[in-house]
Structures are given as C-alpha cells and as structure tokens.
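Hi R.,

Here's the chain you asked about this morning:
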Amino acid sequence: MSTGTASHWADVLTLRPEVTASDGSVGELQMSLHKAVYQTVDVPYRKVGYYGDITQPTPNLVGFFSRVARRLGTDAETTALFHLDQGMGGGKSHALVGLYHLVNSPQEFFATELGRKVHGEAGQGGRDVDLTGAQAVVLTADYFSPGRTSETFGPATNLFERFLWSLTGGDMDRYRHYVEGGPNKGTLQQALSDAGRPVLILLDELMDYVLQLADATNVDRMPNEKAFLNALMDACDDVPRVVCVVVMIRSELDERGYPPLADDFRSYVSDRLVRNGPDGRVAVTESHDFASIIQRRLFEPAEVGTAVSQVAQRYGTASDTGWRDKVLDKLGPNRGLTGFAKRVEASYPFHPELMRLVREEWSQVQNFQRVRSTVSIFARTALHWVTEHETGRWAPALIGVGDIPLTTALEQLLSSGLFMGNDRAIQGYRSVATTDITSTDGSAGRAVAIDQRLRAAGVTAGQDHAGMRMAAALFCYSMVARPRGGRGATKAEMLAAILEPTPAPGTPYTDAEEVFNALTGEDGLGALEITQPANAPGRYYLSIRQTLRMYFTASLALVDTPSCEKLVWEQTQRLARQGIFDEIRFIDAPAATGTIDVAHTFDGVDSAVTRLVVLDPRRWTLLNGKDAVSRAEITALLGIGPDALRVDNAASCVVACVNTQRREVARKRAREVLAWRSVLKQINPEDVDEFREATTKVNEAEGKLKRDIEKAFQHYAYLVRASDGLHVEFKRFDDDSKSSLRGDQVWAALVEAGRATITAGLSADYLAALLDTFERTLTPREVVQSFYKNPLFPLVTTTDEIRVAIFALLRDGWELADSDGAKLAVASPEHISIGSISQNLRRAVKAAETVPAAGGVSRGTTTIPIPKQPGEPANGGEHDRLFGANDQEYRATPGQAGEASTGGAPQNGSESTSFKRYIIELSNRSITAPETREHVWQLLKEVSKVLDAPNANHQLISLSVTLTTAEGDQGAIEQKAKQTGARVRVEDDDF
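And the predicted structure, written out as tokens:
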C-alpha cells in the first residue's frame, strides 16, 4: 500500500509484461544468437523493435556497435577483429544478437534509440554509414560437432566448410569451388571479395566446439581447424568491409575449466586475435551500467523525476539526529545523506546501497554473472513488492539490501556465481536462509519468530517484518568478502537497512535498536558470529564455516522417508543375533501396506530347527491400535487362523516384531544418521578438526539409531497349546535393556514361560510325562520331531538334549524296541539313533503274569505269537494275490472262530467262562516289502474272522492303528472308523 502522500514507486513504474508473465523469471533472459538467427524457437528478441526496447544504450555497447558499423559501412581502416571473452552473464550473447540485427535489418535497427546512437557515433567526421546488402555469417559453434553434418550447414563438417556454406548462401557450385581451394588465406580472401558486400562473421561459443575437438575421437581434426581460423583472421584483416567477432571465454572465467589441448587451442587463437586486432578485446558492459540496464529490462519507460525527488526528500526528513550521528554518518563516503538524491535518481526504484553492493562488491567476484544474475534477482524482487503493494500490504519506499525476498529469490542469489560453484557454501547459505531468516513460505525461521515476538511487545519500527529485513540484509552482506578484508556488516549497515521514511516521521531509531538487539542477542540468529577488529566497529556476519548444524539441518530436509525405513531395516538385520536359536531368518516386506501373498512372503520359514524370525518393520508392527494386519499375518505364519499357512514346524518358530510407536523414534533417528552422513561427504578431509567433528556426529547418531532399534523391537510371538486348543502368544519386553532381536534374551523369556529349556535342562521325568500324553508309542524320530512340531514340547538347545533325556528314560522303566518288538540294549546316549523310524520308545514290557480274576478265578495275560494261516507258504513267500475276490475269506469258520476265541474251552453256558486279554503289539513295522505286508494282512484278516464268529463271547476291543501311507491310498478307513465311533486323527508326516 502507498504510505504518505507521495507516489509509491510501484504506482509510478510498470513492470514489463514478460516479467509479470513469467513470475519474475524473465523468460529467455539469456539470449541465444542461434534462436534469434535460425528461429528454432519463437523468442521475442528476434524482432528488432523489441530488442531495441529492452536494450540500454550503454557507452560500451554503443561504442562497440559503432566500431563494427564503421568498418562494415565505410572505407575507414578500422579494427576488423573483435574478441568477447567475458564470463557468463556478461552480455556477450545480447551484443551478438544486436550485431545481427544491425547487419540483417540496418534500417529498422537505426530507427531504435540504440541504433540512432550507434549511427551517430559511427558517422562522426561526416562518414556515410551504408550497410545496404550487408550479410551476416553466423557460426553458432555450440550447435554443431566436428566431423558431422547438420541441417543448418548442409554437407559441411568443419568450420571452414560451414563458413563457406553460410557465406555462399547454400550455393552448391560456389561452395564446392571454394572448398577445393582449401582453408588458406587466398581462398578465404577470394570468397570474401567475391561476396561483393559487407560481411559480418559472428563466431559464437567457439570453446564449446574446441572442447569436442579435444576429445580423443576428434583430436586429429584440431590442426586443420587451427589453420582455418588463422587464415580467416588474416583474410578479415585484409579484405575491406569485413568484420569478425569471436566469442571465446577465458578459461579462468569458464566454470567448467578447459583440458590442456583445449586451453592450448584457445591460446593459439587468442594470440592471433591480438596480433590482427590489438584493440579488439571488448567488454560490452561495465558494473556501473547495472542500474540503467536493470531499469530498462524490468520496467516500461516512465517519467520518474518527481517521484525521485519526493522520496529523497522524505528520507532526509526521516533521518533525525539519532540516525545521522549513529548510523548514516558511519557508513562511509557516498553512502550517507550527502548526494543521496542524485544516487536515488540513478538507481530508482532500488535503494542506492543495494546497487552499490552489487556494483562494487558482488561484481568483483569472478564467476558472478553480472547482468544476467542481477536482472534475474531484481526481477523477482520487483515483482514481489509490486504484488505486495497491489494487494494492499506494506512495501518499502525503495528496494533495499534487506528487501530481496528470500522466499522467492533465494535460489537466484545462490546460483548467481557468487559462490564460485562451491556446492558446500551454497548448501550452507541455503540452510542459513531457511532456518535463521525465513522458510520458503514465510511461516518459519528465527527472524520470522523474532518479528512475532517484537510485534507482541509493541515494537514494529513502522513496518512489517523489520527483523526479517535486517536479517536478509545481513545475509546479503555476508555472502562475499567485503572491502579491506572485512566480513558481514557493521551495526550501522544493519540499522540503515530498515530505515523507512514512512509513516512520518519515519522509523524510530529506538525501534531499530531493539530489532538489532533481538537479532544479535542470545536468542537471536543461530548462525551469527561477531568479530571486533582493532580500532574499527564490530562486525556481524552469518557464518557457514564449522557450523555443522547448518549443513545438518539442510541435509535433514532432503532425506526421504523410504530411505529412513530402508536404513532401519538394514540396521535391524545387522543388529539381530540368533543366540541359542539354530537359525535367524529375516522377512522382507513386499509392500508396506495392502494385501500381500502371505504364502510366498513366508516361503522357506518352516523347517525342523529352532528359529527366530525377524519381520521387516516397514510393514509389520504391534500395538498402537493399528496392528490387526500384523497379528493376522503372524498368526497365519504360525499355522492357525482363517488364513493359516500349511506348516509342520510352527512350534519351533518364534517371531520378532517392532513396536509401532518406537518404530517412529527409530525412523527419526535414521533420518539423522542419513543427514549426518550427507554432511560428512561435504567436509574436506584435509580440514582435520571439522572432519573429525562430523565423523563423531555420524558415529553418535549411528549409536543412537542402534539403541533405538533394539528398544523398538519389544515384541515376540510363539505358538502354545492350551485347554481350548492352539493359539498365538504375543509377548513384549518392558525392560528397555532387552530386545526381541537378541536371541539369547528371547530364549530366556521362553524358558521363564515354560516354552523352552536351558542347556541340560530337559529332564527324563518331563519327557516321560509328555510321551504319556500319546495313545501310542513313538519312534525316536517322532520324539525329536515333536519338539519342533508340537507346542506341548519345549524348545531345546540341541537335539543332543533329547538324546540324553531318552537315555535317562531307558534307565528308568523305558526301553527301545526294534521292529520285531525285541528290546534293544543301549550303552550310551550317543548310541541312540534319534532319526530311526523302525524303533519304538516305550515303557518296559514285563514277563507274562497271572492276574487274579473276580470270584477267585484266575485270568492270564499272555503275549502270544500269531499262528500261520492254512495254506500260507512255509517260507513266508508272497501270495499270488493280497486280496480275495470277495469277503468270504474275511468270514470266520466255526473251527477257527472257536479256536481263536476260546482257546478250545467249552461253550456251554452252564459252565463258568474264563476270559483272557489278547494284546498284540506291532510298532512301526515297515510294510514296503510284499512279504511283510502279506504277514500284516493275514493278521488283520484273522482279526476280522474272529470278530465275525457268530457264537464268540467277545467283550471289549481296543484298536489303535497308525497307517503311514501316501495321501489317497487310505481308502475308506476314515469313514468306517467313524461308523464305529472311533476317533480319527490325520497328521502330516515328512516320511
């Protein structure tokens, strides 16, 4: 908003349309000769009128153009060779585009303000400058390559041929004629003379072409190219009305630098340019041209005299005794009130101090891109304040050092060349700007917070964001070395940055002091450093050196979440220890969210070993109310639940999982580690102290990350069998010194819960109690498998523990029997074949004994052999067939039934009946051999006949059959068993 009665500069000046249309970026700010001449892109400066409107006729530019026009348009013996060697952003391309317009459209060009001044200076002494029919030969060397043709230059493949193609206008016959003459002085003189008109040769960006020549694939072309350029410079000097302008940046001004061959080529050409044109080196702009160039590029022409005098007068009124004595008089010559009005006239609407800083300090930096960078920075600055003013917000009376908006122009400042391509310095100042002054959206930053604090205390200095303006000024003063080796700004310079003439009577000096004190105090700018030179005012500057925290803050903002999660998982795998477990498995998450193929993800987890399975924290977490998916998938992994996986050894699997809340702590710590690692890469190892400090920071952050990851893995889960069946037990360590990544600590917790044993902790009594829960005897292999398959059995440290426990059982009422039922003698635990499937572990079988029956009648319990069946071969050979054609052979004959059921005892009911219990044990007999299968079949057939005997006095039967067979070969035994009321249990077996 306008302040006071005088017109605000934003009301007096109008920004050019290209500034407002491009958000202050000034489209096509860097002019391209190639685009203007060959019109590959529709750029506005291809039109002479537009070029004349935006080009300030500075003395150097007018002088250069007039010398070219005099050589081309008159017979005067003047310089024919010109060399533009300034660094990037110095106005070279802008000048070449103007020279092209001068020759290609001389009448239209001379009608512009620039053209009139050029024509007037070129025609001094009464010369008639005639450029009628003049020709421009334009060689844009950054748009073609050695040895290759291009659409623009027809069949030409080198500089000589491209020059001729352009000079002859693509006339193939003339082109070939001159090519046959070779790249010598005579051929070139002839070609230029035959043209019969003024010729301007523009050779742009020669070093781009030379860098390609220096490559090993093209280096053999370099001598011929040198010879051509040497001959061309001689010819141009000898043929009247011919000018050659070469753009070839000095190596020390080119941020890329040159290899030796390219640098030698440059020196060769430069020496000949000097020889043939000793006064041809031209600087098209000077630092004192900045103000007028910027005004011309950014604003439409306007009458500003009244506004300038008014604002200068108001500044004078605002400068009371306090400001004069303590600030303005201490700034130095040509910086105080004396001559202020004249300086404002030259810089309006920019404050003279801002222009002085750019002109006298920034422009002294070798890589600073002078015009281009300055226009880019000032365009965004001007647009920012015009927008603020038009929306009714506060805007400065003149745009000063502290008014470059770091919210929108920071990157233009950092990329202007002030830091000589030093990425570390650029990142450091970016961090300072965004943390100490203002964030990109203006909502955060120390200076922003200080302004809020001051405003709450009633200190405004008559403006918005006084603290941010003063801090931004300090930032601009701190970026480059100051005169006489100074750094940063004095107190007077910082105070002067917020001096405003409105609202009248201007900024109170006391408010400015309070702003200064807030910025430089203990709670002020974090990167501030203060020095006190001898016999000189103290200096304040924003430092990036040895303030690693600044680099850390900047690097932290660049770390993405996936990188943090990846680091947490990588560190988790490094930290995990299997301890007593046989194995440790790590399960990568195929996706952090959504549905996954659980079977594929957990493929390979199931195995007959004790294993600690660590889950990827990117997907699986527990607690915090968001763990339903994790619990369901862990439950499925352990073989239960609605989506249970088909697993055999879930009882020996323990799952380690991260805590949801603590995972976030670990992620934040991972972000810090990645940020410090990034900082370390930016530190020069030769700076020993700083490198050591950064290394220490990395180590400290990595140590904290490891501790936080271990704390985050609180949870573990395992399978248990309770009275109501199988379920998953989810447990958590509440002691921060314990972690589910530590296999020894998880095992100890399982021991405490009764799900594991310590070394040598499996007792024979405990094993006996477990074996008694089975309805049949087990093979040694089945006993071992139970410790991995059955959650009733504890996890054991090794299978040797099982072997020792079995041996103890054998000495306490148990025995191992072979496939024939014979007891085996075992001398030591090592002699137990724990992988055997043909042996059985059973309670010891005692000799036959007589047990008194009720009523005094004795009843015998005897283990008897099975008699052979009639017709069975004596040698036990294989029958012709295993099964009869019908079931008659299952039926009992009277003799067989009576004999088998009564042992020949009378069946008369008047006599007392004695009963015997016939117990047949056939444990784990292999039936793969036909002979053995026949024997078993005969036994079962006999049992069926005995049961079928109509007069048999059978009372009870206990039947336990365990058949290990291929799935599908079991026939209808399940259905038949259920019809009798028997319980059927089907188990998986890895037989």
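Confidence is low (pLDDT under 50) at residues 848-886, 891-910.

Let me know if you need anything else.
M.
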